[in-house]
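Example 784.
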Amino acid sequence: MNFGLTPEQEELQRSARRFLQAEWPPAAAHAVFAANHDGYPRELYGRMAQLGWMGVLAPREASGLGGSFLDAALLTEELGRAAVAGPYLANTLAVWALRQVGSGVAKHWLPLLASGQSIGTFAWFEGDSQTWPVALQTRLTLGRFGIRVHGVKRFVLDAHVADAMLVVGLVVSAGRRSTAVVVVPGSQQGIKIRTMDDVDRTRRIHEVEFDGVTVPRRSLIALGTSADRLLARVYDAAAVLLAADSLGGAQKLLEMTVEYAKVRQQFGRPIGSFQAIKHRCAEMVAQIEPARSLVWYAAHAIDALPRQAACAASLAKGHLSEVYVSVAESALRVHGGIGFTWEHDLHIWFKRAQWNRYAFGSPERHRERVAQELRW
Amino acid sequence: MDLTYSPEHEAFRRQLRAWLRKNLGSWRRGQERLDYDDPRRIERAKQWQRVLYEAGYVAMSWPKEYGGQGADPITQAIVDEELVRAQAPGLIGQMGIQMVGPTLIQFGTEEQKRRFLPKILTAEEIWCQGYSEPNAGSDLASLQTRAELVGDEFIVNGQKIWTSNAQFADWMFCLVRTDPKAPKHQGISYLLIDMKSPGIGVRPLVQMTGERGFNEVWFENVRVPRDQLVGELNQGWQVANATLLHERNMLGAATRTQELFAALVRLAKLTSQGGKSVIENPVVRQRLAALAMRVEAVRYHALRQLTDTVLGRPRGIAASVNKLVATELNHDIAACALDLLGSYATQSSQSKFALDHGKWIREFMFTLGMIIGGGTSEIQKNIIAERSLGLPREPRHLPREPRPETGQ
Ligand SMILES: Cc1cc2nc3c(=O)[nH]c(=O)nc-3n(C[C@H](O)[C@H](O)[C@H](O)COP(=O)(O)OP(=O)(O)OC[C@H]3O[C@@H](n4cnc5c(N)ncnc54)[C@H](O)[C@@H]3O)c2cc1C
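Predicted structure in complex with flavin-adenine dinucleotide:
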């Protein structure tokens, strides 16, 4: 029994923290809030790629780090702590999916995404929610000359910089509807991208319209039950990574808040000496510390406990997104007026907490999923 | 208990509704942006207040000689209710109407009342509140902005911060230190300062919502005529507190809470998920009903306070309770709306995909700002605990202060 990180994992996390402190200070996160910034800090991503982070989940023979899912979660936690912008999450989910399938197209794209040469993303959800499973409208028509993609996707992460989009749609044949996933190059004719402007500028989401885009038949990477299994696994992965990101962000907010409570003086004493503030800070710790174990467990389950993975992922995502929002709320209250400004760092994490809450299923949906997984 | 309105009040309500039906038209709130970033919006907001004033509906309870109607508090409450019900835009001059105006009626000289009150009503003069400073927020009485009386003028030096609307306000009601040697609550004075005076600098600050709302304001040898002092020299703390009570009642207005809640219910009816209106979802129904209980409590509590006012009963710490309860409730209402919107919750007001014009994420942040402004929830709780319940203050390491210190 050893519920904890290996020395290598501890070192991975420490070095990632040091690296991001130097390469992605809050000023860099502020910069992506400027109106003309496209949200993709290419220079940082160049360095992250050199470190192998874009392919942490890809096997070594596909230019990856061959890391465990827990490794990926630890890295993501650090990216969340630093509020890193750009397509890391999108790309990591695409890598995770491609690594599960053995087809030729997957073999083509996996090393490109893992090495950071290309960026991948999922074009998955439609209409009103990011919950899975959900009824899809997007049609994939298998013809003699290829697959025609027709439909409108929403909440597509980083579509504007994606080289490969993993499009989820329905194949209807002989009255049977099957889920399917195809890889569509971002450069393909017939793709229209419309930005969905979010208050969290560290994330960029889009509506993507596929108007009869045609790709070769070999672009199909999963069909039917294998597609359903694949997507369930990616959904779990997204849930765990968002939980990890939330954990990192909450930790950062706690540190900022405690630091401020020590230096800000009112009534001739540090505000941290008022019990109302002290308890608020202690409450943040009480929320964060147990939640950390939930994230580690969920990440480990993805690799090692497949039957528990879905439940653990939903427990982690549902709970951590509540914790992050609640910690952000407390952080803002303790900061008073200064925290309400655009110039201050706080709003960056505050908004990221909100985004994390609703992306890939709201807490309510994950609670429902937990209840189902536990067969209540 | 008798919950009927007199025939006169009913008639007044009918007449007001008819007026609103006829005149609100293009003034009705569309986009839910309440900020005044753009000079054209400011101009239009002033025009709306003017229109409402000319119809006789602004600050009806003020005395006739200062531009009011001398109306009773119930009439005033009917106006507040009906404006919200009709979704009329808010008033740009509200800090004048609801904060400094009532303070001047109570503490101002006859000359000050005649000079300032009418222009507050017509929106010819917009006011801002110069209380907070970089080192004096919750501990307002530690403010440092200095005013020295030289002949017939005060010379003001120092800095204010978080001054909402200072970027376009014509006047500021401002707390200054006039006796640095006195215990901190006894050396403060309350001045009315012309924002066009030489020596005033204003730097707008962008709020987390992306809007320019509050500002930093600097004073460098700003001259203020002595007759713009409200109350006695060095006795401004008492006047300041009167304004704070008005502010807390304003921020704690039940009408605002009702308005927000009504918008939430509309949202729940209009939003669908998985092809079903979310208001049919049992989880949503539970949450909405739980909020409704709190909203209704606030509404009836306001009616009870209205009766207290009519009967001239003391209101105790009602303002702090109102502020605490309503601002927290408003924030919870906005949080519920975000959950209803789900993946669309964080779409900004600029997004073509935003539902309800991105109203709710802004409202979620803004309501948190209102929990902080006007004295934070912690400060309101301290006031309630110490002044109303008589609980002792937290132990201090410093020499004892001469007065109870619940701050703001
Ligand atoms: C949107 C907005 C608009 C505003 N507009 C104006 C305006 O127009 N004019 C103006 O003068 N001011 C304005 N303010 C300022 C507002 O009044 C102050 O922000 C507020 O009083 C808190 O002060 P502070 O920001 O310095 O926080 P601090 O006083 O530093 O408080 C920091 C934290 O410490 C807590 N704390 C402090 N003392 C105690 C205590 N004794 N016990 C327990 N907890 C304590 C607070 O509750 C808070 O959580 C505005 C603020 C906001 C957010």
